[in-house]
């Protein structure tokens, strides 16, 4: 929870802040991504009438597995936050539209955990790689006959044999 007491006391003033947010592990495209250290949100917020404007930068470290060699990969997450939270009246009993997404706050604390998690996940790559030129898992073999058997056991081994035979003719 982000404490905005200073903004409530001085509306219209930009208040610098730094906030640490724990991020839970998340599954993306079947892969578990963890955030071993809290995400850091640093910037400023301003209260204007019934709107709280947050202008900040999000930094975190995501840990996953390389898609090619299965080694552990650390990925630096960096995202810009520029969001407006509207003050909600706790006495308001109007029915909310389930399709409308509004960022709201009441009192002197603002829950930004969902926003931080969403932005962190949106910044993640589709595939994690330990290096751009990662060769992946390599099969080590001393004799070429064993290597040939391994290639033939590959799902496209039969296709490779047909192609080789076609080239020889």
Walkthrough of the structure:
It is a single chain. The model has no long low-confidence stretch (mean pLDDT 81). The chain is of the alpha+beta class and 169 residues long. The chain is elongated and about 85 Å long. 21% of the residues lie in helices and 36% in strands. A five-stranded mixed β-sheet has the order 2-5-6-7-8.
Per-chain topology:
Layout: E1 2-3, H1 5-9, E2 15-21, E3 26-28, E4 31-33, E5 39-48, E6 51-65, E7 72-87, E8 104-105, E9 109-110, H2 113-122, H3 144-152, H4 157-168
Parallel strand pairs: 7-8
Antiparallel strand pairs: 1-9, 2-5, 3-4, 5-6, 6-7
Mean pLDDT over the full residue set: 81
Described by strand count, sense and barrel closure, the largest sheet is: 5 strands, mixed
Q: Separation of termini?
A: 73 Å
Poorly predicted ranges = none
The strand count comes to 9
Q: Widest sheet: strand order?
A: 2-5-6-7-8
């Amino acid at each position: 929870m982000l404490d905005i007491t200073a903004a409530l006391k001085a509306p219209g003033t930009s208040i610098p802040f730094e906030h640490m947010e724990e991020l839970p592990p998340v599954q993306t495209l079947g892969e578990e991504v963890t955030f071993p250290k809290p995400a850091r949100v640093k910037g400023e917020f301003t209260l204007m009438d019934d709107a709280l404007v947050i202008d900040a930068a999000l930094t975190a470290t995501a840990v996953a597995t390389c898609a090619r060699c299965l080694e552990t990969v650390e990925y630096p997450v960096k995202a810009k936050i520029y969001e407006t939270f509207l003050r909600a009246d706790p006495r308001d009993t109007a029915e909310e539209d389930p399709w409308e997404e509004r960022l709201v706050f009441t009192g002197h604390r603002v829950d930004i955990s969902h926003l931080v998690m969403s932005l962190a996940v949106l910044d993640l790559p589709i595939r994690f790689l330990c290096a751009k030129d990662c060769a992946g898992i390599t099969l080590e073999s001393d004799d070429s006959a064993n290597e040939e058997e391994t290639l033939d056991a590959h799902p496209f081994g039969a296709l490779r044999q047909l192609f080789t035979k076609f080239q020889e003719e």
